[in-house]
Amino acid sequence: MHRLLALVVVSVLAGGVGCGGGGPASGPTPPPPPPVRTRIPPAPVTFFPVAASDVPPPVFGTAPYTLVATALADHDDDGKVDFAWVAATSSTTTTHESGSRPGTGAGGFTGDYGGSGFKATGTPFLGRGAVLGAAEDGFVFAVQVTATFVSVSTLGYRISGGNRAEVGGVGSFSGTVAGITSGDLDDDGIDDLVALDAAGRRVLAYVSKGEAGLHAGVPSALPAGSGAAPTSLAVGRVHGATSPADVVVALGADGYVVLTNADAAAFDAGAVVPLGAGRSFEALVAGDFDDDGLVDVAGVLLTPGGPRRVGTLFGRGDGTFDDVVPADVEAAVGAAPWRDLVAADVNGDGRTDLLFAVPSLGRVVVLLSDAAGGFDAATDADLAGASATLSVDDLDGDGDLDLVAGDAAALKVRPLLNERN
Ligand SMILES: [Ca+2]
Ligand SMILES: [Ca+2]
Ligand SMILES: [Ca+2]
Ligand SMILES: [Ca+2]
Question: What string of DSSP letters covers 204-232?
């Protein structure tokens, strides 16, 4: 009895500390401790290669050409996934060529939708999303045209009676583009385009009108920091499945910031969240790496003087994340630059996995999430081979995700079909 009474007294005293006079507890609530995450060994995944496809011979610029960006999407809406690319040329006036090929539905690409040559001051950004309508995939594209002018666009084709009409549209801004991504900001079922302007320290949201193109870009400022350049962005419903999509921006050595969706195209920046120990993300993607229904973010985690690692921010569903969970990768992979980080569930266990290309090693790396912030590397020997670029989609329509790795100098892509289905 006495002991119980003593505990109650101690408890009241403890509760009174910092309350400013015995009222109900107030002030910031410390974040809950991170849940204990249990490793679940991921199911394996294997791939088989099908015949490589050529990029059609370039018609603009000057040889030699180098494949620098690829993307996959059913942009002609015939149910088969198509292929788009950007090649750099050796000309100083036509520095790049872009184009697309229709997919065969069996892993190959034949025919040629043509493309265009253009001048850019850096490697263009090429991606995909359901930007042409609900469940109507198309390509998203951003080009640094001059030192201060950026063009963004959505692109697809609609074919009727033998005629091909271009759909989608363009936008532009003054600044320097550090990344683009797509996600549905206004909950109309159509993905919208978001660009990161490093020089202007802002994001620009272009709400898609589907096949009719893009609304004007709406800028939202990033918070001031030490001056470290923002590097990457991801879109996801980090405030929960019923809340609109927000944007997470990597702010170099400063950490990251969540931009909360205010009215579909404008965002309110939260406080900068440091990653600690000088760590920074050089790429970010959204997914659900533990399959708990809450959106997480993962990225390529850099530590000064250290190897590349994967860093996962498990979402709490309220717009905040647990502390970053770093995961080591194979030493050779950690020592080399990564390209084209993709978040997708390739082994069908519900947990988002990570895939990227390591050009200098000639490998695609497939990291299968173990739900606890760790990743098991797929060991399939067919992942080795020229891998300047990586894109992921269901090429053969059998319900699992397939890979396309790019051979930069040969202007070829090697499709790898997932053997799960
Ligand atoms: Ca939308
Ligand atoms: Ca999650
Ligand atoms: Ca998975
Ligand atoms: Ca497939």
Answer: EEE-B-GGG-BPPPEEEEPPP-SSPPP-E
The encoded tokens of residue 287 equal: 């997914």
Which residues, 6 or more positions from 289, have their beta carbon under 8 angstroms from its beta carbon? 296, 298, 312, 314, 351, 352, 369, 371, 373
* Ligand located closest to 154 CA: 1
Measured in Å, residue 178 CA sits from the centre of ligand 4 at 31
pLDDT tens digits, one per residue of 216-254: 999 999 999 888 999 999 999 999 999 999 999 999 999
Count of C-beta atoms within a 10 Å radius of residue 290:
23
Is the pTM for the entire model greater than 0.85?
Answer: yes
- CA 209 to ligand 1 center in whole angstroms: 8
Considering every ligand atom shown, identify the ligand nearest to the alpha carbon of residue 183 and give its number.
Answer: 1
- Residues 345 and 343: their CA atoms lie apart, in Å, by 7
Alpha-carbon dihedral angle through residues 9, 15, 16, 21, given to the nearest 10 degrees: -120
> Which residues neighbour ligand 1 (ion) by CB within 5 Å?
184, 186, 188, 190, 192
CB 95 within 8 A of CB 118: yes
Residue 318: both structure tokens together: 């309220």
Q: How far is the CA of 95 from the centre of ligand 4 (A)?
A: 34
Interval between CA 163 and ligand 2 midpoint (Å): 45
Positions in the chain short of pLDDT 70:
1-28, 31-32
**Cis bond upstream, residue 64 (ω within 30):** yes
